[in-house]
Sequence to fold (564 residues):
Amino acid sequence: MDEALLCGWRARVERARAHLGWRMRGVVARRHAGGTSLALAAPCDQLFVATEVNEWALCAALVARDPHHWSGLEAALVASALEDAADASAVLKPVLDEPAAFARFERLAAREARPELMALLDAANARRLPHLLDDTLLTLGAGEGGRDFELTALPDVADVPWGELRDIPTAVVTGSNGKTTTVRLLSACARAHGWRAAYCCTDGVFLDGELEAAGDYSGPAGARRVLRERRAQAAIVETARGGILRRGIALSQARVALVTNVSPDHFGEYGIDDLAALADVKLSVASLVTHGGLLALNADDAQLVGKAPGLTQRFGRSPPLGWFALDADVALLREHRARGGPTCGVRGGRLSLTHAGAEHDLGPIAAMPLTVEGSATYNIANLAGAALAAAALGVPPASIAAVLARFGANAADNFGRLMRFERGGVRVLVDYAHNPEGLRGLLNVAEHLRGGSGRLGLLLGHAGNRQDTEIEELARAAAQFRPALVVVKENEAHLRGREPGEIPRIIRAALLRAGLPEAALAMRMSETEAARCALEWAQPGDVLALPVHSPAARTEVLALLQGS
Fold:
């Protein structure tokens, strides 16, 4: 799309928004490999009208650009609207003439308007109360301080028991790697402080560490279940890229938001083709941070460092920032502390937290189980980010230090992530590594455990919704470690449009191009069979890295390792 056409599209959206009285910030256009997307903000009771505005603005711009070519567009819009309608007589037919289109939008807006809902949201915002909204329920407040109202029977503002409603300490965690580990660390810190903590992640919804609902709840559905848990006194929400792009974040506010890192993954979906665009998606959580809250960012991530100065322009304000890094004394952290800002990082082999103007020694890194004697550098970053976020939630540093000193010693603490086993003299790591950066981190730990003796074996597969180049990059990351065995696996639970065997063939070819010999490669058509192959191959002194991704396969692999 050329600039003139985009400007025409955008200008029409802006005029329609002004005509309808939509004053909130937010018209964003993004060019990407598949074309151009334009998004606009609208009141939550006008979202259908907003889609009509956007469609009209693009179509009107196209007709203005080339009336002959697009002469039948208005008739096609009318035909589509009638075809989709349950009652054709109720359809307000699309029209491209601007004054007539604006009159139509007014009528559509009047049909869709929910003044009683908007009055309640205004009242909640005035009281700085969070809210959740879906197709059937409005929730005001959160956790044990929340209350649900059916959209079909909303009360008047005066009838809401506002004095009984309140927020609870809430953190939102996103990023490419480390989200679930960080969520679990924060939940453990909240429980150590005496709060009943609810959290959601890719494994489910939990309350005080006990599973309430199994499945991938790293999207809006998980956030709603956590914030609507009436026993919860604190809430920790994992929010992944896919959920943000498809359905939004669901929360209206959070005391803390944390971005772990940004690395190449899922390119080509929803118009996200590069790291800069992916960083913008992750940083959407900045808009949730309340006044006096904290946005915790990884200072070792160049995208986050580069994007942070633009938050004010993007959101109209920048939330208070906190920075974490592997080195507590990198320039950014030193300068941030000098201005009174919170930081967390490693100094002299110990994790150092600066919060509220005071410095706290959280203990030796090598003694923290999650770091595997300091070799799991990605978990050092997760510990630093979690400590910074926990302090911002209100957890005392002494409680944080106690959690970091023990978390990960029990395999159940961080189920499916860097779980360590020994089986007949073979050391085994079970993990969720699913992109090149995560795999390198896992294999660095495996190399540390191998200590220059024994052999390295691993499983390698990928989900079907990745580009071929991403799959090949994962294979190259594995080949850098020169493993003695790679069991190329079918991730059968995540084909996602690919033919069976397609991804294993891509991986195997990439490994051969990277110089691994055919004798080092095996192929299995399920994750469980791949793990069984690696375990049968291994000898005492060897180290196996087993990235396992489907919950069912993970259960079976753990049963193999535990001899049940």
In short: The longest helix spans residues 47-65. The chain has four domains: 3-112, 115-164, 170-414, 419-561. DSSP finds 19 helices and 22 strands in the chain. The longest strand covers residues 289-298.
